[in-house]
Write a structure and sequence with these properties.
This protein is of the alpha/beta class and about 525 residues long. It has helices spanning about 10-15, 20-30, 35-50, 55-85, 115-125, 140-145, 150-155, 170-175, 195, 235-250, 290-315, 355, 385-390, 405-410, 470-485, 510-520, and strands at about 90-100, 125-135, 180-185, 200-205, 210, 220, 225, 255-260, 320-325, 335-340, 340-345, 355-365, 370-380, 420-425, 435-440, 440-445, 450, 500, 510. About 35% of the residues lie in helices and about 20% in strands.
């Protein structure tokens, strides 16, 4: 079969005109659209039949024009791909939330008691926020960070997330992300709870029961209750699960939510402690806790953050991964730390700064090019809109979230910083709760008490409202407007209460060995360490 060969550059030569080399040309040629491929084959296959219909010279012109048309389509494909290549890729997102680890526990924040080299390194190369506030205790913070809505509007009771709630898991899935949650759950919902809240996979403690969480723990992994032995450590198991999840989905966009088990009590040895006992099981009573083990547990928290950071680098996806580290509330009240040259008591469960002030460190090498420190106000309702916007998604208006994205600040812009943040807090839900609005220096409670929290950390001496100076009066009026915004917000209806079952040592559970035998080839779905 005769084929016209006009004196034009070949595809590789043509691609060089667009600035590529031969290997790049081969790569881009493989990306030709199906339409272009079909057109090229049509030209060759129909040429022989056309020879009898047209004179040779006319056929030569027809095939030459067709060839140039294909070259033009190919050039358009290359230019389109080049334009797309210039667009920023959607980042992978890993949100880590330590359990009972206040602002004072991180060296980069001025902490002096604990060793946090990995967090300090992330802060030194990323962005550190000095005014991030959570709720005073675990479940309220979990509800707020996952929904972007203040507790007054959707918090029902301790240990529960409203099954009707929309979470960042849902929104990230809708944006096309693979989603995973691992660590501490404490939100009920049974085996289907995490999936109902938007997570494809999970490895969790406190989902259906309350076994031990540290040495030889009991966890729930994708619909299975698993009791681990052989000296395994709960935080290692769930962080290993996260690492495997990231490896399986490194070619996709993924979102990992890691509400850590550490460093919540009981304060007992870690595998890095000299007193580590690989045969221990269950939760030790308060008489066995030692605050020096809390120091070890904070160090192990930092170690796991470093493990995840290193894994992302090994997978070649670290530069475009948005890694966020924070804490769910202040440090346990029985722990006193050295912070910025003074003793600093833990304030978990209190609305004072030591109960709500938590670390916030963000690392995203592709976007955050150098160390930055922000004085902007951030609270836990802001996490959801930030990660959804970073993923290229949108938050439905009908959710009416309270959060405000701080993505522009991460990108080096001014953004839209808050003038105040709001808190409604009641550990167990109900109609009444402690309510306040605050900025970086002042806090106003709904009961009228007004504090300069920089000078009065323990909030023992409220300011006299009749003797406020100009600065204080301006702050008071601003915070009053913040409180008024939520004054008439109705509380949601209380749901029926229920409790998780406690682990029964007489009831046989699935062991690691039995689980592997039953799972067979499905170990990637429910992977074990």
């Amino acid at each position: 079969m005769w084929v016209a060969r006009p004196r034009t550059p070949g595809l590789f030569e043509a691609h060089r005109e667009f600035g590529g080399d031969r290997e790049d040309a081969a790569r881009r040629i493989s990306a030709l659209s199906r339409m272009e491929f079909v057109m090229f084959q049509f030209l060759i296959l129909t040429q022989a039949g056309c020879r009898r219909m047209f004179p040779r010279q006319l056929l030569h012109r027809i095939t030459t024009l067709a060839f140039f048309a294909i070259i033009a389509l190919f050039a358009q494909t290359i230019c389109t791909q080049s334009a797309n290549a210039d667009q920023p890729l959607r980042p992978n997102i890993v949100l880590i939330m330590a359990d009972d680890m206040g602002y004072e526990c991180v060296g980069a924040n001025g902490g002096e008691t604990y060793k946090t080299p990995h967090l300090d390194r992330l802060a030194a190369s990323g962005m550190r926020f000095e005014h991030c506030h959570s709720q005073p205790i675990c479940t309220p913070s979990r509800v707020q960070i996952m929904t972007g809505i203040y507790n007054k509007r959707n918090y029902l009771q301790f240990g529960l997330l409203d099954p009707r709630a929309t979470t960042f898991g849902h929104l990230m899935k809708q944006t096309g992300y693979r989603t995973c949650v691992a660590g501490k759950w404490q939100l009920k919902g049974g085996f289907d709870g995490p999936k109902n809240f938007g997570f494809d996979e999970y490895s969790l403690w406190q989902l259906t029961r309350l076994p031990g969480r540290y040495p030889n723990p009991g966890l729930e992994v994708n619909g299975m209750e698993i009791d681990y032995g052989n000296g395994t450590y709960g935080p290692d198991i769930v962080s290993d699960y996260i690492c495997r999840f990231m490896q399986r989905h490194k070619e996709e966009s993924f979102f990992v939510y890691y509400p850590m088990i550490l460093p919540h009590w009981p304060f007992i040895p870690t595998p890095d402690s000299e007193e580590w006992n690989p045969t221990a099981t269950g939760e030790k009573g308060r008489q066995h806790w030692k605050n020096r083990f809390f120091v070890d547990m904070v160090a192990y928290t930092d170690k796991i953050v470093g493990k995840i950071d290193t894994k992302l680098a090994e997978l070649g996806i670290r530069d475009n991964t948005l890694l966020i580290f924070t804490g769910d509330n202040g440090t346990y009240t029985g722990v006193t730390s050295r912070f910025q040259g003074r003793d600093y008591p833990g304030g978990k469960g209190k609305t004072t700064d030591n109960g709500t002030h938590v670390p916030l460190i963000v690392s995203w090498p592709k976007v955050i090019k150098k160390s930055r420190v922000s004085q902007d106000l951030i609270d836990f309702s802001d996490m959801l809109p930030t990660i959804v916007e970073a993923a290229g998604g949108t938050v439905p208006k009908e959710l009416m979230i309270d959060g405000r994205s701080f993505l522009p600040q991460l990108q080096g812009q001014t953004g839209n910083p808050r003038e105040w943040i709001y808190c409604w807090y009641s550990r167990n839900g109900g109609e009444e709760g402690s309510e306040h609005a605050r900025d970086q220096q002042y806090k106003l409670y709904a009961n009228g008490k007004f504090f300069n929290i920089v000078k009065d950390f323990e909030e023992t001496s409220p300011l006299d409202l009749k003797q406020l100076n100009n600065e204080q009066q301006t702050a008071y009026e601003k915070l009053s407007r913040g409180l008024a915004r939520y004054e008439k917000t109705p509380r949601p209806k209380q749901s029926q209460k229920g409790k998780l079952k406690k682990a029964n040592p007489k009831q046989p559970k699935k062991t690691e060995k039995k689980f592997q035998a039953k799972a067979g080839n499905q170990t990637l779905v429910c992977p074990l360490p």
